[in-house]
Design brief:
Blueprint lengths: L2 H5 L2 E4 L10 E6 L6 E5 H8 L3 H5 L18 H4 L8 H11 L10 E6 L1 H11 L8 H10 L4 E4 L1 H6 L1 H4 L5 E4 L1 E2 L12 E2 L3 H6 L4 E8 L4 H17 L3 E8 L14 H13 L4 E4 L7 H4 L8 H5 L6 H10 L7 E5 L7 H15 L3 E3 L2 H4 L3 H16 L7
Parallel strand pairs: 4-5, 4-13, 5-6, 6-9, 9-10, 10-11, 11-12, 12-13
Antiparallel strand pairs: 1-2, 2-3, 7-8
Helix pairs in contact: 12-15, 15-16, 16-18
């Protein structure tokens, strides 16, 4: 391989006669020759289907990209280092941001596997029983080139001495167990921050169900946990979800841009370093619910539109204009997982987001296919032609 190919990215342009004006076969090389990334943009456009042009060529007319703190190789120095985070937290963030195929880009690809509690082990692992074994979970994250693996105290603790030094651990502290009858929905702390620190984890995560009556104690408990994590030098990731039956009207407003945006804003208020949020599918949750909260007409007239990139950008804006990274969740597994994963990644990146945290789409299939899916997501963030809108 010529030296220029090892040290620099280069393009091979060729007309494939696709639906777009010019389909490109792109070869990308990271600065470290360990990883060689081959991206077939024609394949990417094929996966996006009829949405390809509207997503890849969209120009945002709401919140300008120039107003955002965008991901990049210098993100920790440019953004996190200006905060009150202890230097040991910066080191932990650097460990996450420098690992895996996306290491050094400012983007994140994280494998989360806490569904054994959240959705039951049977429902989660029956499609691929090898993931009952914690080692398979960590191996998937490593072979998939992820920045980190997120799971329960039990899963990560079972293999910590073998793997904690090989990939950053993110311990999820609280969970909604699904064995109470009738089913209840509350986040209960299964682990203490000190347990995560003792096993060598570099980050902790927690969920808050904003909009639910239980959110009051969840906010208090998680705020204390995140403060303690920062004192010990660990980064913090907040699963920033909505949960209330009243949010389901003519649409499911659990994924409305205005409500999820406000949830993000509450999440960064307790100094979550990274926000995990479902990608918005609609807007106007405040307007659909009578006598609920406060909003402004300009949220809908100027700061958002119906386009998914604009809706997701509003989520980024509520993360202090990107000062806290927004990672969108990959959603449940289905028949079009590869197409769905690419679409979510393109929307997140073009909106100014920081990456994806995708679990079920990856582990509910044979490991080789799961690795391929994770790599496909990462390829979107490595492709320099897919830019922030």
């Amino acid at each position: 391989m010529p030296k220029s190919a090892r040290d620099h990215s280069f393009l091979v342009l060729r007309d494939h006669g696709t639906t777009l004006k010019r389909a490109r076969e792109r070869v990308l090389l990271e600065t470290r020759p360990r990883f060689i990334v081959i991206i077939m943009l024609a394949e990417l456009e094929q996966l996006l289907g009829r949405d390809a042009k509207s997503l890849l060529e969209y120009h945002c007319k709401t919140i300008p990209r120039e107003k955002l703190h965008l991901p990049g190789p210098d993100f920790i120095d440019r953004v996190y280092a200006q905060t009150d985070r202890p230097t040991s937290v910066l080191r932990s963030l650097a460990e996450i941001f420098s690992h895996g195929r996306l290491g050094g880009t400012g983007y994140l690809s994280i494998l989360p596997v806490d569904q054994g509690i959240e959705h039951s082990a049977g429902a989660s692992f029956a499609p691929n029983p090898e993931y009952f074994d914690p080692e398979s979970i960590v191996r998937l994250a490593i072979e998939g080139g992820c920045n980190a693996v997120a799971s329960t105290l039990g899963v990560l603790g079972a293999v910590s001495r073998r793997y904690a030094h090989r990939i950053p651990f993110l311990v999820k502290l609280n969970h909604n167990e699904l064995l109470t009858y009738p089913n209840s929905f509350d986040q209960i702390y299964f682990a203490q921050v000190e347990q995560a620190w003792n096993m060598g984890a570099v980050a902790v995560g927690a969920t808050i169900y904003y909009g639910s009556p239980e959110s009051h104690h969840q906010i208090i408990e998680t705020r204390k946990a995140f403060q303690r994590a920062h004192e010990l030098g660990m980064a913090t990731v907040l699963w920033c979800y909505l949960r209330n039956p009243a949010f389901k009207k003519d649409k499911d407003y659990h994924t409305s841009a205005d409500l999820t945006g406000q949830a993000n804003h509450l999440g960064v208020t307790i100094e979550a370093d990274i926000i995990k949020q479902k990608q918005p599918t609609n807007n106007g949750g405040y307007l659909a619910l009578e006598k609920f909260g406060k909003t402004h007409d300009l949220v809908y007239k100027q700061l958002t539109s119906d386009h998914p990139i604009d809706l997701t950008r509003y989520q980024v804006a509520n993360c202090y204009m990107g000062r806290a990274g927004l990672i969108n969740s990959g959603g449940e597994a289905g028949k079009d997982d590869f197409a769905d994963a690419v679409k979510i990644a393109v929307i997140n990146k073009r909106a100014g987001g920081t990456g994806l945290i995708s679990g079920r789409k990856a582990f509910q299939r044979p490991m080789k296919e799961g690795v391929r899916l994770l790599n496909l997501i990462q390829d979107v963030y490595l492709d320099r032609e897919i830019t922030v809108a």
